């Protein structure tokens, strides 16, 4: 049992998004997550962490479960999203990533769930993320001005990362992105 009772972290939000698409049991959800053509491209999850997060989400009231008898397998716990879970997921997916170090996983996972946003919401998310990235870049460039040695090398690397993110965001095809399934 997880002692954490704070709001869900990104692992939990991803679970909410998966269950939101279709009620399923834990083993099915892990397989969907770790599929090499989806979330598994950027992030793999271990079963222990996954099941602890499922339990936490159920305790928080974001997921509900029922026991479903299997045809060729034992009875399994099937999860479905609750209204609280739905609202938590939608708030998360519409919120840009706050820290550059989290962008690679967090923003790409949000794109996996892009069909959960209409085109205006997706464009707003990308525009907000662009604005935040520009703030990261300005801050790093200011720090770079007074740096030297190893610090300058690290800041130069981070500046190039953020510039690359900005270029990628600028080139992100909204309509084409909306048309694909994410699965």
User: Averaged pLDDT, please?
Assistant: 89
- The end-to-end distance, rounded to whole angstroms, is 30 Å
Strand order of the largest sheet: 1-3-2
User: Which geometry do the CA atoms define?
Assistant: elongated
* Number of helical stretches of at least 4 residues: 8
CATH names the topology of the largest domain as: Arc Repressor Mutant, subunit A
The sequence of SSEs as H and E is HEHHEEHHHHH
Outline the low-pLDDT stretches: 1-8, 176-183
Please summarize the sheet with the most strands.
3 strands, antiparallel
The CATH class of the largest domain turns out to be: Mainly Alpha
Indicate the percent of residues in helices.
Answer: 55-70%
Architecture per CATH nomenclature, i.e. the level-2 architecture of the largest domain: Orthogonal Bundle
How many domains, as an integer? 2
